[in-house]
Every structure is written in structure tokens, then in C-alpha cells.
What we know:
This protein has helices at residues 2-30, 33-37, 52-55, 61-71, 93-102, 129-139, 145-172, 178-195, 208-217, 221-232, 234-240, 247-267, 274-283, 305-336, 338-354, 361-366, 368-380, 414-418, 437-442, 461-478; strands at 77-82, 85-90, 175-177, 292-293, 296-297, 386-390, 395-396, 403-404, 409-413, 479-483, 507-512. The chain is of the alpha+beta class.
Amino acid sequence: MGVYLDGWLEELVISLSAVLLVIYVRFQWGYQYWKKKGVQYVEPSVPFGNMGKSILGLENYGNLLRDLYEKTKGKRFVGLYSILHPVLLVRDPELIRQILIKDFGSFHERGVYLDYEEPLNRQLFFLPSSEWRHRRVKLTPAFTSGKLKGMFQMIQQCGRELAEVATEFASRRSSVEVREMVARYTTDVIVSVGFGLESDCQRNPDAVFRGWGRRVFAPDLKSSFGFRLNFISPLLADLLRIKGGFTEVSSYFRKMIADNVEYREKNNVTKKDFIDLLMQLKNKGFVEGDKMENGKNTEKTYFPLEDLAAESFGFFIAGFETSSTTISSSLYELALHEDIQKELQQEIDSVLVRHDGNITYDAITEMSYLDKVVSETLRKHPPLPFLNRDCTEPYKIPDSDVVVDKGTGIVISLFGLHYDPEHFPDPERYDPERFSEEMKAKRHPYVYLPFGDGLHSCIGMRLGLLQSKVGLVNILSKCSVRPTENTTRHITYNTRSILLLPTKEIELRFVKRS
């Protein structure tokens, strides 16, 4: 018996050793890819390549890419590996312009894998190019300045309530965790302009929509790993069928949208909100204001209810979290820089005087210093700190002999670009004047890309900026914001999230303006 066991164990050890040797050789062969291409690369580690800390949830992906960007100073592009998948980190602003704009046809896929068996995953951001192009065209009229003006009063109503909440905190002289406070505001905005409903999040911390928002952006370990892997290593996610997305909230949202649509159609209810615009696509095949030819829409596309629900959910998740991060980060920076806050308040006061004290769409557009403040906040705190694409055909990099193969991942570190001292001197300093017309003219335009650019740029950029500015103006017209002794002076980021979400609460206090 002893001899038998010894023989069995010996065979097991030999078999495992052979398997490990094959795996090791496979990785070593795979990690020669960039060397054979003549591309300088960052030395990878088995088995995760250059992405191990982020895949394992030990470092935020945006931070990891920023570190790699900074370590490869002076390079136009550099080779990386996501497990065995070759990825090109592009650093050169002019090459970034080529990829996003001029040669978009060679990089039209985002390079993200999601399980499309889950209906809510079939939203614009995640769709493959074959479906994305057409849907983008049909949805674009829903985000014009004219449509936003029609939604403005709903946004401003939420903004007034935000000012009331801030004033109440000021009266109590109590500190507040601003990320949660403004997340309730942005949730109210998105539910109002998106679904025509009242979510009452600002007065009710346990409101239904706020609860779903927390679940989406604070998922369990399994869900967060799946979603992270779908961005960092989509090929492995596809191979292993690791699902990423929002299956835990699917039933609620699909039923909510279906009930909302049924009620409106049955009772002939029309509102100037996002659901109304999507219902036009569902029933007419186009959004009013879409390009017309000879009095007729050039091409009709009828949205099934499932796609309507998916786009509505995409509107919800993209609309409240990114804007709440922008507002809370702005308040944080303004609390630490009272001189900048004072200058902004002076602009707000002077513009509102010209508009009889009313916060209007036109008043917001007149606030040029506010625009600089929000732009500088997005430079320092970009909610999504990277852009990713897939090469869809062999591509010769201009002014080089390198040909990028089809299927190669492309990644652009916005965090790296935004903190590069060659583009933004003294990058840790908060300075809205970086975005004066004079300073912008001196800079390459593709070193600042908080919303991306080109055909894949953020379709909701205007709405996101508008609700952020409305929130800031309502607060700062009534209150000043100050740090407390517990206010962090160095923000660290959640290592399990793709977005730049602070690990610590941002505690501030409000002071009533006299």
C-alpha cells in the first residue's frame, strides 16, 4: 500500500510540474509580443501581466495606469499586458487625437465584455459597434441644449431643495458627509428628468432610488470583481463567462420602466423628460428634433421596451454618481481654497443680480468662472480616469514602424495626462485659471479629456455639467463651505471600483452667508 501511494504521489507531482512548466512557457512566450514588435514595454509578472494589483482589488485601476504613465515618461506609447492580452498605453496627445478622431474607424470598439443575456446591459455605453452607431444617432437629439432647457425647471427645483438642506446643516452648525448629501440631490435630478417621478432622496435617506444607487456602486465582492475584470481583461471575462453588470437590480428597474410607460400610454401623459423622449423612439421611431428630410424622418428605429429600459437604467447610473463626484469634489476643493470660493461667489452674486435673483439656464451659462472651477475639478478628480478601445484592424502608428494588430487593447490614462507637469505645471495645485482661454490655447487639446472625445464621447456631458453647476450655484449662493478638523487632506480611492470613488468620507461644514 505504501509503495502504491508513493507511486501515485510521484505521478501527481510530475503531472503538476509538467502543467506548471507548460503554463510558465506559455506566459514567457506570450510576454515576448511587444519585444518582437520593437515596442518598449513594462516588464510583466506571471500570471496577471501588469494589471495584477487592480485585478486582485489591491489598487484602483486609474491609479495603476497613472503610475505606469508616470514611469514611462518620454514615450509616445508603451506596451503592457493584461494577463496574456497585449495592451498599448498611449501617452502622446497627438496620437490620442488620431485614435479618438481621425482614425476612429480602426478603434471603434470600447473593448468591454458584458453578458448581453442581462437586458439592462444592452445600453449605449456597452453596446458593440455594430449596434452602437445607429443607437447613438437616434439618442443624440435627446441631449441637445433645447431639450436641456425644457428640463431645467425640474433640475432647479431639486437644486433649491439642495440649498435648503445645506442651509439647515449651517443652522445646526453640524458637519456633513457631502458625497452622500449631493448624491441624494443628483439622484433626485436624474429620477425627475429621467423618469418624471419624485424620489424624495434629499429628505429621505432610505428612499428607494437612493438604495438602488448605493447597491450599484457598492456591489459585493463577486460583482465588483466581475465588473472590474470586464474592463481590465475582457477576453478573460468572456472566456470564463464572468458576468459584469447590474443583474441584482434588473427586475426592479425593468418593472418600474414598464409600469411607467404603460401608465403614460394608457392615460396619454406627456412630460419633458428622458422617458418621454425614449417613448418617441418606441412609438414613432425617432425623437422630435431628429434630422428630418422632406418633412419625414430619414430613418425610423423603433425601440423595444427592453432597450428602452436599458437606456433608462444607463441614464440613471451614469447621471447621478459622476455628477455627485464632481459636485462633492468641487466643494472639497473650494473649502480648502477660500480665495477661489470667494471669487466664485462674487461671480454668482453678480450674475444673479442681472437675473433678478433667479437661477436660470441663461444665468448658469453666463458664469465663466464657474465653468473654470468645474473644469479644474474634473482635471484633478475625473470620475472615470481612463479611456479604453480595441484595435479593430491592423493599424500602423504614424511616424513609426509599429503595426498594432487587430484585437490589441488600447488604453489612455486620463489621470496620467491630467497630472502630467508638462501639460499642467504643479499639477497637485487647484487652479481654475488653467482653463482661461489664454491657457487653453497654449495646451494641446487632447491632454484634458474628462468626457472622452470623438464619436464615443459622453452623450450626457451637457446634462452632467448642467446639474453639477446648478447644484453648486444653489449651495454657494446661500452658504459658504469650510473644512473641519476631520476633513482629509489626501484623497485615496476605492481599490475595487473602476471609478475614482474616495475611500474616506468627505466631511465639510456649511456657513450661512450674510
